[in-house]
């Protein structure tokens, strides 16, 4: 296993009560592509997989991470100037070119918007190459919605809809599950490519709602971010049937993984 | 010749698959209705004497919780049906509904639709087979929300 390369935290932005976005810079760092992830090390504590949520070139990486345990807590607390270890890039990429000439539906739940942000940016940067673009974002509460400034900017060139499970006082937007936005997304089912990331069970229901609308399973791309350890296909921790999520994924076409998602973990 | 309302109902995927004859029959119980943003469409506990096919605008379903005020449970938007408490006794709304945007809708008179369902089983079956998937979908979404899946990525 290669040793982590030290990267410096150059910016730390608080996104929500438990989530921050870190910008890291490393000398001669390799290129990372949207969909791929890095193994980030909090020195002395441990290493975790975190998706690319921006950057990726010139040794500059942007990661959005949620504080859920020991390692993510340490990374969450990293201040500008601090060093973080980086291994990678690992994993498959979002195939944005698959959507050229088609309508695009991007569905994110919670922190799932982080790995999808580069997809939205890539599509909007080449807006003319795509048909209608819908970005559907669900979160637990309005305060958990990531990247409010990006959402506002995207609204100028895409149909961006947000929905929350638990509204707070003053919320005048939609309330419910992100699946309920699927029937209303402006997209021709015979000519649409979808990209999904979020809580796995929720994304299964989103994929089923898209299939009910007429999309084919192979036109639905999904990132599966189940617990993994080595990131390189050695330890077998993230095995899903015949697949190792870290090596064969995290991004899959839905028709490939759909039968496996119902298999219980051992 | 089809009436304006029949054309509007046929344009909505919700009743797709119903024969024109059945849609015509249904539209004999229908009127067009609009609500400005903020309007109460129906109040919790009130008589459930209609349902609406939403064409434009969003509606918030809510409940008044003592000590917590009006709580929005779900919002629903164009292309779907608002209200099903009219289907079964006691024909009272379990939740209230407010327009959160200007709403354009087709309103169906519940008593007239129920009467047709009872006297014409083909019509009744067609109606229920359109309404039950919506009820099932909303139940499933509610169950998923109960699981509060947000804890993990
Ligand atoms: C490919 C991939 C990409 C990811 N991208 C991001 C990202 O961009 N941002 C982000 O915040 N998180 C991301 N994650 C999740 C992140 O890796 C975990 O939250 C992290 O490993 C938790 O480590 P910890 O030491 O902080 O907590 P731990 O103490 O290890 O875990 C806390 C709890 O969370 C559970 N858990 C840990 N990881 C996962 C997981 N992946 N799925 C379900 N349960 C888990 C543990 O079993 C434990 O119950 C990604 C995961 C994968 C596999």
What does this protein structure show overall?
The complex is a heterodimer of chains A (266) and B (153). By secondary structure, chain A is of the alpha/beta class. Chain A has 2 domains: 5-90, Translation factors (Elongation Factor Tu (Ef-tu), domain 3); 96-261, Rossmann fold (3-Layer(aba) Sandwich), CATH 3.40.50.80. Chain A has 6 helices and 16 strands. Chain A has helices at residues 70-76, 113-125, 148-155, 200-213, 245-248, 254-261, and strands at 5-16, 19-25, 37-42, 46-51, 54-55, 60-66, 83-90, 103-109, 133-139, 159-164, 174-175, 192-197, 220-223, 239-240, 243-244, 251-253. The relative contact order of chain A is 0.14. Chain B has 153 residues and is of the alpha+beta class. Chain B has one domain (4-151): Jelly Rolls (Sandwich), CATH 2.60.120. Chain B contains 4 helices and 8 strands. In chain B, the strands form 2 sheets. Chain B has a 4-stranded antiparallel beta sheet. A 4-stranded antiparallel beta sheet of chain B has the order 2-7-4-5, with no helix packed on it. Classes of the chains: A alpha/beta (266), B alpha+beta (153). Chain A binds chain B through residues 66, 68, 109-112, 139-140, 144, 163, 165, 167, 171-177, 179-180, 183-184, 198-202, 205, 225, and chain B through 58, 60, 72-80, 100, 137-138, 140-141, 144-145, 147-153. Flavin-adenine dinucleotide binds at residues 37, 46, 48-51, 64-66, 68-72, 111, 114-115, 225-228, 250 of chain A. Flavin-adenine dinucleotide is lined by residues 37, 46, 48-51, 64-66, 68-72, 111, 114-115, 225-228, 250 of chain A.
